[in-house]
Specification:
Strand 13 and strand 14 (478-479) form a beta hairpin. The chain folds into three domains: 4-256 and 301-306, Rossmann fold (3-Layer(aba) Sandwich), CATH 3.40.50; 324-372, no CATH class; 387-506, Arc Repressor Mutant, subunit A, CATH 1.10.10.10. The protein has helices at residues 20-26, 38-49, 67-71, 82-95, 108-123, 153-169, 189-192, 206-215, 272-281, 301-310, 326-342, 351-364, 374-385, 395-404, 409-423, 431-438, 443-455, 489-497; strands spanning 4-10, 15-19, 28-31, 54-59, 74-77, 99-102, 133-137, 175-181, 197-200, 233-238, 242-250, 460-463, 469-473, 478-479. It is built from 18 helices and 14 strands. This is ATP-binding protein.
Length: 506
């Protein structure tokens, strides 16, 4: 499923679309000198994708807190302990809340420590909560510096390690890093190198222009063009943007930063003598009692935790869908599950990714009512991976589904696959089929799973006179027909040349 994010216009006047699904897998690097429009670009990306994906913004200047009023982001003030920030980040992933980590007012070392703690909490979240998330880091050179500065080595190592985890290992955990920097030369190379998409804005130094040209695959003589780019214009390249360098102009945004570019104001019209008197000789003014409105203190950790517990993911603005009959709603969700499982890569995707895909498809198809919860989705997905027809009604099959619900989550689909074959008197599933139901491509892993299930007394395996495998299910009182469980020749050849599976037995 494709979700095209409108970033503005290309040089040819066509819409500049960013493939959000591809971005989640390949990450993004934005570079441009101060005033080139980096923050405007990030704001456009965040606004356009707010209804599609969870977001976390590391904001060193407090510019993005205005996202809270329009798009419902929670603002996490950095006046928390590092342990509190880690716990808040874990809750953010659990409840799928979009947040802004406001680091305004801290010194550089404090910002690095807080950002490292928060990114660490996102990275270390429980596997069940690895939902897709855009993690936007503005002024990334502060958190992943290329060289040691005035901060302590400990703070630099913590921050650089967190940024490296985000860009290098975050994809498998659903974290898609979007980093923006003023100068590529100031950004750690191992962090910048993991991005596959680039948006390069105005820059003047030769070293930065040459590095930007290298990243975009341009000749050195073309690097001069980066000096001539206007504010808000960028050169795009990457699988989520364009296969060739593409100039684009970033579109308008709905929210504004609290800070703005400086504007010229006329100087006061006063003679030099009068100014001298005002500065050096004027008496101290009488104290004036000014009634200022009370400023609310920053929220406590307990307040933020309570907000996260009450949070519900923002839904895209749309007309209310008409109420559906339960039968129609169930049939529509069955169709969506079939569409998801028709994707060859779906068997190897995590539960969190598939669940996010399912919810987005439900919104697109206007499925009304309360969305299916994650526990229910897990059970339905296990049934779908077993190859059963949606809505299949049979007393023996219902008993198999009920028994599978008591097993470990990882082996439910494998048990139901074997149970379906046994109840329908079909041949025993091959190692390839069992591995696919488990979410693996390794037949050796399938044999390990069967051995584990047999050790638990869930299944009993035997072979006929020809050496074909038969699997019996004692709790259901049935067994599969005999079948050759060996992997297909292509798979066997691939396994023979591959590195040994250290976790497979037999």
């Amino acid at each position: 499923m494709k979700a095209g994010i409108d970033m503005g216009l290309t040089s040819e006047g066509t819409a500049a679309l960013l493939d959000l699904e591809e971005l989640l897998a390949t990450r993004l690097l934005v570079q441009g000198n101060s005033g080139s429009g980096k923050s405007h670009l990030l704001r456009r990306l965040l606004e356009q994708s707010a209804s599609w994906v969870q977001q976390a913004i590391i904001d060193p200047e407090g510019d993005f807190v205005t996202m809270a009023d329009r798009f419902g982001h929670l603002v996490v003030d950095a006046a928390q302990s590092e342990n509190d920030l880690q716990r808040i980040a874990a809750r953010v992933r659990q409840h799928r809340a979009s947040v802004v980590l406001n680091l305004e007012g801290l010194d550089v070392e404090g910002q690095m420590r807080c950002a490292a703690a928060f990114l660490g909490g996102l990275f270390d979240a429980d596997r069940d909560y690895w939902y897709p998330m855009l993690v936007v880091v503005d002024e990334a050179q502060l958190f992943a510096p290329a060289a040691a500065g005035e901060v302590s080595d400990e703070a630099r190592k913590l921050s650089l390690g967190a940024m490296t985890n985000l860009m290098c290992r975050g994809r498998k955990r659903g974290l898609a890093g979007v980093i923006a920097t003023q100068r590529l030369a100031k950004l750690a190379k191992n962090v910048a190198a993991e991005a596959s998409n680039f948006l390069m804005g105005r820059t003047f130094l030769d070293i930065d222009m040459a590095r930007a040209a290298d990243l975009l695959g341009m000749e050195r003589r073309q690097a001069e063009m980066f000096r001539d780019l206007e504010r808000g214009r960028f050169i795009a390249l990457g699988p989520a943007l364009s296969r060739r360098p593409l100039p684009m102009r970033i579109g308008d945004v709905e929210t504004q930063a609290r800070s703005a570019s400086p504007k010229l104001l006329p100087l006061p019209d006063a003679p030099a003598e009068g100014m001298h008197e005002l500065i050096f000789e004027a008496p101290d003014p009488e104290p004036v009692r000014v009634h200022r409105p009370r400023v609310a203190p920053p929220p406590t950790t307990a307040d933020i935790m309570a907000q996260l517990a009450r949070h519900r993911p923002a839904e895209p603005a749309a007309e209310a869908a008409p109420a559906m009959a339960p039968e129609e709603r169930a049939a529509l969700m069955d169709d969506i599950l079939r569409e998801i499982m028709a994707d060859p890569d779906a068997a190897f995707a995590s539960i969190a990714v598939l669940y996010q895909d399912f919810l987005v498809r439900c919104r697109i198809r206007r499925v009304s009512g309360e969305p299916m919860g994650l526990p229910t989705f897990r059970r339905r997905l296990a049934v779908a991976r077993a190859g059963a027809q949606p809505g299949q009604a049979d007393e023996a099959w219902d008993k198999a589904v009920a028994f599978a619900a008591e097993l470990e989550e990882d082996i439910q689909a494998v048990f139901l696959l074997i149970a379906r074959a046994a109840l329908e008197k079909e041949p025993c599933p091959s190692d390839d089929d069992i591995a696919r139901a488990f979410g693996s491509r390794s037949p050796a892993r399938a044999r390990r799973i069967i051995a584990y299930m047999e050790s638990r007394g869930i299944v009993v395996c035997r072979t006929d006179l020809r050496g074909n495998r038969i699997v019996a299910l004692p709790d259901l009182g049935c067994e599969t027909a005999a079948a050759d469980a060996a992997p297909k020749p292509a798979v066997a050849a691939r396994e023979a040349t591959a590195a040994p599976d250290l976790f497979a037995s037999g």
